[in-house]
Amino acid sequence: MSQEPFEDRMAILVSRYATPLAIALVSMGIILAQPQGGTRDIVIGLLFWGIFFNHFILSFIKRDGPGCWFIKLRLLVNLATNTLMVYFLGSHWPPIWLLLALTPIATAIYSSKARTMLAAGAVSAILLVLHALRGPHSAMGWGTEAAQAAFIVLLSLLINELSVHARAHEHSATGPVLQK
């Protein structure tokens, strides 16, 4: 069993899987959808910002340990960056909405059920607002967005419950685990 604290291992896992997924989604959106001009430049800039930020912030999370404010900063900055990428790429590359699922999934790993539900609800609302801003609106479009929002909420809650069980297992195997 690793000597690193459980929360540090979770932060590393989020980075190991969420960051490559985000990079792949955005890169495919740029390459396959080929947005033009300013949209392409903004999305490329946001992509490089996200790579830099996530690489840089992980060292602070490891240094300061569980419950540090860098985890919350990381979640908020990634949510803002991902929201902008979904806004700019959404009409060109439909799978980009998956970026928004990353924030509540990360919250589910680190935090309580209430915070997970709050993050998932907020992200679902953002997804619906972005759809409203994009238009045009059809029953099929709204149905798709509602299904995606439900997916975000339910998957986040599932992951949170699995994380709670993992924390409980860690607690029983190694002693008390710091809770948030």
Characterise this structure.
By secondary structure, the chain is an all-alpha fold. The protein is built from 6 helices and no strands. The protein has helices spanning 6-33, 37-64, 69-89, 98-110, 113-134, 139-174. Helix 3 (69-89) runs parallel beside helix 5 and helix 4 (98-110) packs antiparallel against helix 5 (113-134). The longest helix has 36 residues, at 139-174.
List the helices and strands and how they pair.
Layout: H1 6-33, H2 37-64, H3 69-89, H4 98-110, H5 113-134, H6 139-174
Helix pairs in contact: 1-2, 1-4, 2-3, 3-4, 3-5, 4-5, 4-6, 5-6
Q: What's the oligomerization state?
A: single chain
Please compute the radius of gyration using only Cα atoms. 17 Å
Shape assignment: globular
So how many helices?
A: 6
Number of strands: 0
- The unreliable regions are none
**Nearest-integer average pLDDT:** 88
List keywords for this structure.
6 helices; 180 residues; mainly alpha
What's the quick description here?
This protein is mainly alpha-helical and 180 residues long.
